[in-house]
Input
Amino acid sequence: MQNTFIAKNPSVLWFLLGLSLFTVIVSICSEAAGTALISTSFLKTLGKTLCLCLVAVAMDVVWGYCGILSLGHFAFFGIGGYAMGMWLMYDRTKDIVVASLENNILPATMDEITDAIGAQIFGVVGSFDFPLIWAFSHSLTLQLLAVILVPGLLALVFGWLAFRSRVAGVYLSILTQAMTLALSLYFFQNDTGLRGNNGLSGLQNIPGLETVSQATLSLWFFWASAVALAAGYLLFAWMTSGKFGSVVRAIRDNEARVRFLGYHVESYKLCIFTTTAMVAGVAGALYYPQAGIINPAEIAPMASIYLAVWVAIGGRGRLYGAVIGAAVVSLMSSWFTGGSAPDINLGIYVVQWTDWWLMLLGLTFVAVTLFFPKGIGGLFDLIPRKGDRR
Amino acid sequence: MRSALFALMLMICSASAATAQNLQPILQSHATEVTNPSRGSVGEALDAITGSGLPQATAFLEQWSEKNIWQRDDGVFFIGVAEDETLALTDVDTRATSTAPKTDFKQLKPNGGVRRLIGTALVQFQLIDPDLTRRETAVASIARRPEAAQLAPLLASIDAETDPALRARKIQLANFLSARFADDPTSRIAAINSLAIDTSVESRAVLNQILTVKSDVTRAQPEGNIAVIHDPMDAPYAYYTTLVDASLAPAKQTAADIKRALEANIVDGRIAGFPLTQMSDPDTRKTAYAALAADGLVPVLITDELRNAALNDHVFYDLYDEPNADITAAAQAALGSVTSRVAAAQVADLTLDALSLASIFFLAAIGLAITFGVMGVINMAHGEFIMMGAYTGYVVQLFVPNYTASLIIALPLAFAVTFGAGVVMERLVIRRLYHRPLETLLATFGISIALQQIAKNIFGTQARPLTSPDWLAGAWVFNDVIQISYIRIAIFVLALMFLGLIIYILKRTRLGLEVRAVTQNPGMASSMGIDPDRINMMTFGLGSGIAGIAGVAIGLYAKVTSEMGSDYIVQSFMTVVVGGVGNVWGTLAGATMIGFGQKGIEWLNPSNTLAAQTYMILFVILFIQFRPKGIVALKGRAAGD
Output
């Protein structure tokens, strides 16, 4: 089985090889390994990029393979980040609070500790009570489950409602965008209990691992992101190959015909939509501890559209295309907007990339949509391959 | 009581004929009170001065309260203005002017309380002053600080009032004053009853002032005009605090108090025999505290049972300041009727608000309804066309300083600019992507990012003002509850105009006929000699142009920023989808529903407009489940599928 799967999908093997090679090289160059050729902050950027690649792969499956242009997958990504961040923030604050109460004459009761944690976390929004959605934040296991289950459930309910009433095409895109907007507005409110526009912060400090240096922690997260990307890639490569994959692609190409062939189209779509949402949640849970902070602006509708942009530029309908797109565009974005790109002096006007990068991206995107629908990944089609089945 | 008497005396005095010819003798006979006035003593002097009925009394009182009265060493009073070491003097009676060295004179400096009394005495003159502005000032000063003494002169001045508006205002004010200060309970009740139909803030304030209460607590049965007796169990914590504040009960220990008490009683690392390490258990803490209390080391813990018993032993009540129960009952009834009237007015006000929000949504969405609804093209850059229109208005204002003229130039110019941009975009991008709607969505999104960034680079990130002309400033005030700003009315009118215009273009012109033909069947249309490319271009340009005009309108009341487009894009799509694609009436219905829905939710939870938007979007998502084709669904061949 494994042999035939790999044989049918040679790109998977190449991808895994490339990813492991990349991971090994980066590990050797990292500060934790002693060579320090790559700074810790850049290592974090690389780790975050791997997470973005993972959510881009998920987006590619739902859009490139199943034809659902979801403008909500970055919201699922954000929810995963929030679920992870809640535990990180709770547990770390608890450590701090317990340490500060240590000097008290009387040992603190549980209620006193909880109140102090609440005051510490929700002080910024003028509250000190724990909202209901923080009920599980004391338990890592439950919050890890929430990372997968909350986006999954949300996608399941939303997808069921939408697919059942045969909302498709651009209508579905607009509806998912509306969902994203509603979510981000909801997170922006102070009384939601997620600290409003302050978001959750200090997530780079992992409770229980205070003694481990940030350099080592970043490397661990980088490895975890690489493993998650590899696992996600394998999962989706397996899902999109074989009969299931064929049906999914057929739905993309002609939904009505598949329905008339007797397939229950809604179930297939729902399965893809929900699975990708859960993977997006996992990616977010790995991303935000590396970013250190999450706030509602991260899940604004714009972010989900950028996700679609990455996948389109990378080349949709092929998993490695999504990885390439996400990696290239997000790294280029941080290079251009970080101010390290050289200005171009036109004599009468100096083009500063921090100002003009978004315009370049927008126009590139239009050009890709118009002239290179296959994206960067389409370049691989130009390489002649032995035993090419197509 | 004093002030009522004073008012009565004023009436009598002003009615009696003037006996003296000169003011000076009157002043001399009250010289002590005039030179050294206090709030208690000055009344007599004021009565004498106002009672004289002399025309010069007004001027004297005004100057007195402005500290411009000087007394010569021999006791004669003058109106004087100090210039360095000399005084420019005016005789109080003859108004003859002279100068004299300052050293011979002493300035009279009445204090604030006295000046207020002088002001009150002045009011009766000012109310019948031949100058309209002075009468208005007097009325306004009464409205600002109503006093019992002003009632009589106010009532007396109504008959002679010639200005109808001021007369009405005087009657209203007299009503307010009678409701609060009239001597006779019957006339007070009559005045109060007449307030029942007045929804103004002033009238409500008058009623509330009559109904002011003082909260109190007692063990016995309370006496007086009781407003309400409270059940302390409704909010035991707050009522027990009242009890503690009234020193009728010991304070209930807080968690911090208990902790402090425990900490203060540590003996050999133990509290009441319990080791310190066990103190992390709240039950052990309670037991230890109880043990300490039993030994008399700490006050007994006020448990919830003890607290409730104490609460039940007392009566908590509100007492009206007004002793007469009939009056408070009448005021209560009047306030009830006013409140229901205010509620009705609020509903009307909310409807106006919702209508104006709906017209904003309609304006923002109508262009989209044409491009998306009629042509089936998703234009994510629609919001940026709105932004472009708003910036066009801003740029025009930089060159044309007259706001009215600049608005008249900006509207067609914004249409032209965005029409051009729409046509260019259609030719370069959209034309290549017909029948690939998802790709259109993405490509137009790319354009929207680029346009936003260009606007940011040109105009900067801070918001730019688009100032509306003066005749659009302010609001149309119907009463104290219902009011709407003129800009919103203008936007409503603009929305109506566009509705009419678009319906006219689509239904009554050659262009509209061709648009409808191309929409329904492009192949057939082109075989009938219609050029579908040209029609698509024109339609897209029209939709974009209207977005530009909407941008000017929106810019007038909201800030113009490079990101303003993205605020409207999702709402606009929602409006079109909810209303029903391909139908202008549908867009109207969608805008109305979303506008009213959002205002309705805001009314339920006024502090949180974000929540209103959130729930509105959720509602729309659910609504699409039940009516996937929107409120106004096309049927038959026009539906296209």
Confidence is low (pLDDT under 50) at residues 7-19 of chain B.
